[in-house]
Amino acid sequence: MLAENSSKREEKPIPPNMVEIAELLSNLTKVDGVKASALIGKDGFVIEQKMRDGVSIDMETVGAIVIGGLHSSEAIGAELNVGKVEQSMVEYENGIIFSKLLPEGNVILTVIADQSAMLGNIRYQVAKLAPELQKQL
């Protein structure tokens, strides 16, 4: 009887706020040059992610590495007495990783882009999107 009941469990619907978050990240991923975007918790786990078609990135690994980088940046900030980290950006030979702590500081929005992306546009889009994402959390 127990096995029968467990096999008939209903799938829980996706909460409306997660649908909205997924849509917001999807729109961000449509920005020229952006390959992927993700909301990452301070524990390093990915809350939600979106990638362009044909892009394959292990965002769980990226999330863990982003958190490690954040901790390093926080340590540097504390040593230099310059305040808390608000955002970080690393330019590589073939791409950019941009991360911004959302207003309450408990979630990080990370954008992965190729070298063709316009950093100013990414920063603008992220600044515009961050408060909307925070409302959904």
TrEMBL record:
SMART domains: Robl_LC7. Coiled coil: none annotated. It comes from the Bacteria. Signal peptide: none annotated. Residues 21-113 form the Roadblock/LAMTOR2 domain. Pfam families: Robl_LC7 (PF03259). This is Dynein regulation protein LC7. It comes from Candidatus Thermochlorobacter aerophilus.
